[in-house]
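Narrative of accomplishments. A recurring question from our advisory board has been how the design workflow behaves on a single, concrete structure rather than in aggregate. To address it, we present the structure tokens for one chain from the evaluation set, followed by the sequence designed for it. No filtering or post-editing was applied between the two.
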């Protein structure tokens, strides 16, 4: 089916607001939302819970339900406002969810999606949210029936979910844009690796940052022993890095974050600052987009992370716009007392042949812990 046709039907249902967080399974749907010529108001939020909150506010103002889209990994972020606000036992706010099904049982996917994929339908059952699953074989007549069922549910003040399998939507006119930055993220990561000591402990965020860091480290050092790749749990890499920093004060800890991830749980910044870990260093790679899942803008493109971190209480922050400045990160880590944050603006480009870690997530965890243990013994 075409996303544009579904969006037209949402308008006919009385939906005026569509909001959420991009997903690769919903790439064609997201492209369709960005290029749609109708009257839907579209917002990309920092996380899925915020999207539910915005949908609740839109309903209170207009008495019209909203549509919230997300990857199934984002259900966790949405549970609190969904269960404690929108549910019929509380306020009874109708919301239509469109959820990309990563980790669908029987379909090969990345490790962070496997368990989430198994429990996706069960989560909606637990939340008392009726749902239907659609795929590329769903006919127009079947989709009409699903939307009719959804509309009846919404009119009762309840929520309804449409779970979308991979390949459901046809390609739409791709949404393209440029952020005006010139440095390439993978080159930046390579320069950072060459500049820091190899005994620096690195924690990287989910998505292409970890994949590129993995390939660069293998290319430069022949291993990635000192890197914990946070392949899931978007937005939590900085707190994982803090947990390591607090317990290994003899080591320099470098968190390599993305702008979308930092936005998703930005409360981590003032918390890290309040803890004042002297061995904590934070890089935010900023391309103003959710590039790993289709390059949709974050909705917060003007955020100055260096200023936010400074206002949060980081000891030092700066924005590095030249590769010569990136090359100084290694020496600055040796000289500066943390917490320090460097924001690095980069372009949207990435290699089409970018690989993935050859080891399992568990194997990478065990290798990283062995590195931490060995360095303690030395």
């Amino acid at each position: 089916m075409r996303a544009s046709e579904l969006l037209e039907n949402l308008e006919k249902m009385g939906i005026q607001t569509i909001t959420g967080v991009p997903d690769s399974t919903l790439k064609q749907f997201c492209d369709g939302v960005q290029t749609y010529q109708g009257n839907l108001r579209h917002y990309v939020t920092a996380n899925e819970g915020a999207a539910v909150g915005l949908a609740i506010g839109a309903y209170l103002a207009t008495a019209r339900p909203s549509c919230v889209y997300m990857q199934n990994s984002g259900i966790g972020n949405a549970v609190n406002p969904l269960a404690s606000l929108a549910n019929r036992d509380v306020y009874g706010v109708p919301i239509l969810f469109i959820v990309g099904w990563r980790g669908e049982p029987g379909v090969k996917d990345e490790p962070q999606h496997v368990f989430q994929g198994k429990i996706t339908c069960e989560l909606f059952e637990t939340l008392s949210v009726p749902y239907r699953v659609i795929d590329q074989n769903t006919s127009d007549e079947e989709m009409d029936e699903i939307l009719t069922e959804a509309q009846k549910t919404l009119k009762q003040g309840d929520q309804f979910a449409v779970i979308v399998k991979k390949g459901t939507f046809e390609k739409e006119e791709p949404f393209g844009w440029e952020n005006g930055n010139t440095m390439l993220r993978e080159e930046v990561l390579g320069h950072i690796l060459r500049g820091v000591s190899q005994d620096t402990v690195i924690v990287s965020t989910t998505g292409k940052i970890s994949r590129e860091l993995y390939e660069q480290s293998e290319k430069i050092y022949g291993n990635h022993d000192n890197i914990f790749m946070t392949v899931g749990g978007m937005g939590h890499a900085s707190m994982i890095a803090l947990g390591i920093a607090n317990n290994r004060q003899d080591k320099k800890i470098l968190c390599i974050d993305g702008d979308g991830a930092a936005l998703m749980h930005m409360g981590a910044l003032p918390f890290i600052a309040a803890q004042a870990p002297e061995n904590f260093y934070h890089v935010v790679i900023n391309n103003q987009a959710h590039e790993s899942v289709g390059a949709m803008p974050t909705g917060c493109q003007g955020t100055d992370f260096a200023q936010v971190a400074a206002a949060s209480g980081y000891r030092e922050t700066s924005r590095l716009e030249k590769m010569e400045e990136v090359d100084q990160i290694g020496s600055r880590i040796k000289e500066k007392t943390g917490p320090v944050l460097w924001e690095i603006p980069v372009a949207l480009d990435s290699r089409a042949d970018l690989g993935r870690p050859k080891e399992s997530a568990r194997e990478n965890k065990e290798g990283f812990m062995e590195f931490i243990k060995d360095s303690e013994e030395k």
